[in-house]
Amino acid sequence: MTDRVPTTAVLLINMGGPDSLDAVEPFLYNLFSDSDIMGFNKVLLPVLKPLARFIARKRTPKVKKYYSAIGGKSPIVKLTMQQGKALEEALQKQGNIWVFVSMRYWHPTIEEAVTDMLEFPLTKLIVLPLYPHYSVTTTGSGFNEFKRVLKGLGTPTIEIRYINDWHDNPSYIDAVCETIQNTADLNKLDIHKIPIVFSAHGLPMKFIRRGDPYARQVEKSVELITGRLGNLKNWQLSYQSRVGPLRWLGPSTDEVLKQIGEKGAKDVMLVPVSFVSDHVETLYEMDILYKEKAREYGITNFYRVPALNDSPILIDALKEMVLTACIPPSNPFF
After folding, report:
1. Which percentage of the chain shows pLDDT scores above 90?
2. Would 70 disulfide with which of 50, 164, 202, 283, CB 3.0-4.6 Å?
């Protein structure tokens, strides 16, 4: 922090990830004890914490292997900090706006970030989850935790605005298109010919049946991306990261890769969609697991499009959303 007093703050919320192998089990416990994820079954609520402890303990050995394969920790906090720094630098050119970074299931926690923010005399707070697509299990959970924290700290007199989703933000769409085109150019690929698989984080169908807009928004993003790239026809949408016996959104990324291999294709481009930072789902699941699966299915050339991370176009998208929330056209306050 500098000695300038902020008047507006932006709270970035991301999922988080363990910063060491020892942190894997407590991270998993925090994840599986989230009632917004596990609470769809009210019968489980009274035993949610013991159940989360059991699931975390059971899954830890397997998950540790995943993190060991990508360097022993998640890079998501470091990458989100870089996004926050770049966003703050962009916003400081527009006014006295500060950016704080928080993680839903690890440090810096939402409580730690909010406590830090409230040391300053804020007049406005923008809550911006780094999930382009709204789900009660991600954005909704982050909002709920933020509200619980704020209530526990004593609700201050601050104007608070929530950015629910940004799946169709033009700059976000441009940012994804840029990563796809750059990957194609670097490897001399024809994006109108190579099979392209957009892989998004999965979600149990129970949430979709209850009205969660996540899948619909993911589909809209892919529609806009493929349209912007010249009305691509050679693409499919899939979902990854299934956990447990529930029915999840499909088809799975594994299934789609298998189908592509069975058709005799030797090339595939995998595009992370709904992920804006590299973490275990891109660095292990995509780069290692799905790459190995692709080879098993006869696909010899596997290209994974980078996550957006601190893409300047992504930062522009975040800046646009913050400024729109900060400065209503009819009543600018700067």
Report:
1. 84
2. 283
Q: Element (H or E) spanning 235, and its range?
A: strand 235-240
Spatial CA neighbour of 22 closest among 58, 80, 73, 70: 73
**302 has which bridge partners?**
268
The answer for 264, left when phi > 0, alpha when psi is -120 to 50, beta otherwise, is: left
Ramachandran angles phi, psi of 141, nearest 5°: -65, -40
Ranges of residues in the chain whose predicted pLDDT is under 50: 1-2, 329-334
Q: In this predicted model, what pLDDT tens digit does every residue of 99-113 receive, in sequence order?
A: 999 999 999 999 999
Beta strands 159-162 and 124-129 are: parallel
Query: For residue 270, what are the β-bridge partners?
Result: 197, 304
Q: Which residues of 162-177 are buried (b: 16+ CB within 10 A; e: fewer)?
A: bbebbbebebbbbbbb
d(CA 202, CA 132): 14
- Please say whether the dihedral angle defined by the alpha carbons of residues 266, 267, 270 and 271, taken in this order, is positive or negative: negative
| % the chain with pLDDT above 70 | 94
User: What pLDDT, on the 0 to 100 scale, is given for residue 5?
Assistant: 64
Residue listed under structure tokens 């699931």: 55
Amino acid at the residue 208: I
Q: Which of 193, 188, 133, 190 is nearest to 163 (CA)?
A: 133
| Nearest-angstrom CA–CA distance, 157 and 77 | 29
What is the C-alpha radius of gyration for the chain, rounded to an integer number of angstroms?
20
DSSP state of 99: E
CATH number for the domain running over 170-304: 3.40.50.1400
Q: What is the mean pLDDT of the chain?
A: 93
| Predicted pLDDT of residue 252 | 96
Residues of the chain with CATH 3.40.50.1400: 170-304
Q: What tokens were used for 48? A: 């949610």
